[in-house]
Amino acid sequence: MELNLIFETKSISKKVKRRLFKIYSLIIAFLKKTIITINVFLRRYIAIRRINHILGNLNNESLVKLNLGCGTDYKIGWINIDNNNDRNISKIDLKWDLRYKLPFEDNSVDLIFNEHFLEHLTIEEGLKALSDFKRVLKINGVLRIAMPDLKATIEEYLDPDWKQRAWLKKFGLDFVQTRAELININFRSWGHKHLYDQEELERRLIEVGYREIRFCELRQSNILELANLETRNESILIAEAVK
Ligand SMILES: C[S@@+](CC[C@H](N)C(=O)[O-])C[C@H]1O[C@@H](n2cnc3c(N)ncnc32)[C@H](O)[C@@H]1O
User: Fold this and answer.
1) Domain boundary pick from 57, 84, 102
2) Are 134 and 209 in contact (CB under 8 A)?
3) Residues 120 and 205 in one domain
4) Could you read off the pLDDT of 203-213 as tens digits, one per residue?
5) Residue 24: its pLDDT value, please?
6) 48 located within any domain
7) Which of 28, 32, 61, 173 is most buried, most CB within 10 Å of its CB?
8) What is the pLDDT of residues 58-87, one digit of tens each?
9) Is the domain of 43 the same as that of 85?
10) Residue 174 in contact with residue 168, Cβ under 8 Å?
11) pLDDT digits over 31-58, tens only?
């Protein structure tokens, strides 16, 4: 009889413990979610205030121009944005993770430029970003994208003189011994997640709803503000997409 009572008490206390642990886990999960939500909200609020301050300093005739994933390429007259994670960038206008909705109103931006940025996002993140860039652009606003070209990467792999390419020296890659090593670097190094060629870039831009797409030569554009922007000769694939 006594032994039975001891067993029952033990199993009740086990049950209570399990239940308490469940409640505790639920409270922790709820707190975590709340803290993340407040953090996102605060970041967004601070970013919007910062952007409003910058926009307030523009005169009425100035175009609103964004240089996204700017890195160390700070462009005067542009709003330079980067999340500043992968190197020490001394000057930016806004620290922002471009995988998240830009802190700009719909239809409020005239021009967007980015160089060697989009290939740092996965295809899902890239599509989301392209779509958000379109949201903030005014009607007829233009997005210019400059990036490495997958086709050029393949051509380089097939080139018998691939070792003589100037960019290998420039980026300290003269240690590379084989084409396989080189092509893997092109695909995976520097945080590359998805490489594009002309067909792929055009398809994705159409997919998110840009209405006109044109491919351009390095530093060439019919739009004065979009000419002479690229800083890298490795920007081989360049497109302008009109909202
Ligand atoms: C190869 S660098 C190019 C920098 C500059 N545009 C240039 O051509 O010299 C890629 C830049 O994209 C930025 N970047 C990558 N992912 C990002 C993200 N999710 N949000 C904001 N910036 C990001 C990096 O911090 C880095 O500065």
Assistant:
1) 57
2) yes
3) yes
4) 999 999 999 99
5) 87
6) yes
7) 173
8) 888 899 999 999 999 999 999 999 998 666
9) no
10) yes
11) 999 999 999 899 999 999 999 999 999 8
Q: Which protein residues touch ligand 1 with a CB less than 6 Å away?
A: 69-71, 73, 82-86, 97-99, 115-117, 120, 190, 231-232
Residues 52 and 103 in one domain: no
Q: Given ligand 1 and candidates 82, 114, 147, which is best to mutate, with the most ligand atoms within 8 Å of its CB?
A: 82
Pocket test for ligand 1, best of 85, 91, 127 (most atoms within 8 A of CB): 85
Distance 157 CA to ligand 1 centre (A): 25
- Asked whether residue 33 falls in the same domain as residue 125, the answer is no
Same domain, 64 and 117: yes
Domain match, 91 and 134 both: yes
Residue 1 has pLDDT above 60, yes or no: no
Question: What is the pLDDT of the chain when averaged over all its residues?
Answer: 93
What is the span of the domain harbouring residue 200?
58-149+196-242
Are 39 and 93 part of one and the same domain?
no
Q: Give the chain's domain count.
A: 2
pLDDT of residue 9: 65
Question: In 3-state terms, what secondary structure has residue 27?
Answer: helix
How far is the CA of 240 from the CAs of 68, 172, 201, 211, 220, in angstroms?
15, 31, 11, 11, 11
Question: For residue 60, what are the contacts with CB-CB under 8 A and spacing of at least 6?
Answer: none
Mark whether 92 and 143 lie in a shared domain.
yes
